[in-house]
Write a structure and sequence with these properties.
This is GntR family transcriptional regulator. The protein is α/β, with parallel strands linked by helices. The chain folds into 3 domains: 9-105, Winged helix-like DNA-binding domain superfamily/Winged helix DNA-binding domain (Arc Repressor Mutant, subunit A), CATH 1.10.10.10; 107-204 and 336-360, Response regulator (Rossmann fold, 3-Layer(aba) Sandwich), CATH 3.40.50; 208-332, Rossmann fold (3-Layer(aba) Sandwich), CATH 3.40.50.2300. It is built from 13 helices and 14 strands. The strands form 3 sheets. A 6-stranded parallel beta sheet has the order 4-3-5-6-7-13, with helices on both faces. It has a 6-stranded mixed beta sheet with strand order 9-8-10-11-12-14, sandwiched between helices. Strands 1-2 form a two-stranded antiparallel sheet. Helix 2 (23-36) crosses helix 4 (60-72), helix 3 packs across helix 4 and helix 9 (208-220) crosses helix 10. It is elongated.
Length: 377
């Protein structure tokens, strides 16, 4: 190609807006592939940000991110005088060129963390991601978050893309089984949250203390039959929480009933409310606060009084709990601290810290409010 002839960006870059991969990553991948395959030559000038964004149908900031990423990798050089031009790396043969993430790690301090969360509408996950982002900013890292909407197929596809496009993958409460996680993810570039898989670093919430306090509180109030409302069947955390609650309830001589599974949403809580109200339980612990709030709202609409007819304890201690009606008693997890620990694990991984991958545990505790009381009071 004539070095003075501007290439058409649409022939270099194919964008798939259905993919979880950010558009700027797709743009950078297309340009990088064109350089590697010889379709762009050293010294070749690229269209301006305005021209390229118009042709591809993306924003200027998206093009700017893609150009900066390739500039950081040493594949592009930019100046006001000559615009954006290709600068091939001469120190590595074409068939041995490093991956994008390896080049970024070698040349710049900024690294891209790809986070996968099961449900972006859950305030706990929003807070957790905010904690990761704040700690990552201090460590000169950037964070890209994708919501997989509790869909295993979307989760599988997204994790595969994150491993290809990002330096580090953070999988939050993944729904895939251990074999799939081991097959899809490189333990040298992955941190798990609320999930332990052999060979991987993980940061897990230890619910033992919080659950023990919650059940002890209910028994002390005089509740003799206590239930647990479980979240999605694919949630390992929900299964572990159910086992903790059952163990604590039976150890204290009370009866235990299991409900669910339900969606981990307000609607999920509403869907199980009638079954809970018509059972023998006088108190329940729920998979998360959204389930608790949904069940309380529906129960009140049916004429039930909370906590007189049913005491309710949630899990996560989200900000809405304190202003709920009644304010929700909940087991608290310091989600921002989870984020800090995740970035600490990433830093150790990138610095090649010794020792075997393991599980970092973060404790929990009960915050008592007005959704629990003595039965009938």
């Amino acid at each position: 190609m004539d070095l003075h002839e501007l290439p058409r960006m649409s022939t270099l870059v194919h964008l798939d807006r259905d993919l979880a991969s950010p558009l700027y990553i797709q743009v950078a991948n297309g340009i990088r592939a064109s350089i590697d395959e010889g379709r762009l030559s050293e010294g070749q000038r690229l269209p301006s940000e305005n021209e390229a964004s118009d042709e591809l149908g993306v924003s200027r900031p998206t093009l700017r991110q893609a150009f900066r990423l390739l500039e950081n990798e040493g594949l592009l050089v930019r100046s006001r005088a000559s615009g954006t031009r290709v600068r091939r790396q001469r120190d590595a043969p074409d068939d041995a060129r490093a991956s994008a993430s390896e080049v970024v790690r070698a040349r710049v301090d900024v690294r891209l963390i790809g986070m996968v969360v099961p449900d972006w509408t859950n305030p706990f996950f929003i807070s957790l991601c905010a904690g990761v982002e704040r700690a990552a900013r201090v460590a000169s890292m950037r964070v890209s978050v994708t919501d997989v909407m509790e869909d295993r197929r979307v989760e599988r596809r997204t994790l595969r893309q994150m491993q290809r496009d990002c330096d580090i993958t953070v999988a939050v409460a993944p729904r895939l089984d251990d074999a799939e996680i081991t097959e899809l993810l490189d333990p040298r570039r992955t941190v798990l949250v609320n999930r332990a898989v052999p060979g991987f670093r993980s940061v897990n919430v230890d619910a033992t203390t919080g659950v023990s306090q919650a059940v002890g509180h209910l028994v002390a109030l005089g509740h003799a039959c206590i239930g647990y409302i479980s979240g999605p069947a694919s949630s390992r955390a929900s299964g572990a929480l159910a086992a903790h609650v059952k163990q604590e309830v039976t150890a204290r001589g009370a009866d235990f009933l299991a409900f669910g599974p339900v969606e981990p949403t307000i609607g999920g809580g509403a869907s199980i409310a009638d079954e809970v109200l018509n059972s023998a339980v006088t108190a329940v612990v729920t998979h998360n606060d959204l389930v608790a709030l949904g069940m309380i709202s529906y129960a009140k609409s049916r004429g039930a009084s909370i906590p007189r007819d049913l005491s309710v304890i949630g899990f996560d201690n989200i900000p809405f709990d304190a202003v709920a009606d009644p304010p929700l008693t909940s087991v608290a997890v310091r989600s921002h601290e989870v984020g800090r620990l995740v970035v600490h694990e990433i830093s150790e991984m990138l610095e090649g810290a010794g020792g075997q991958p393991g599980v970092v545990h973060l404790g929990s505790e009960l915050y008592m409010r007005e959704s629990t009381a003595r039965p009938g009071s």
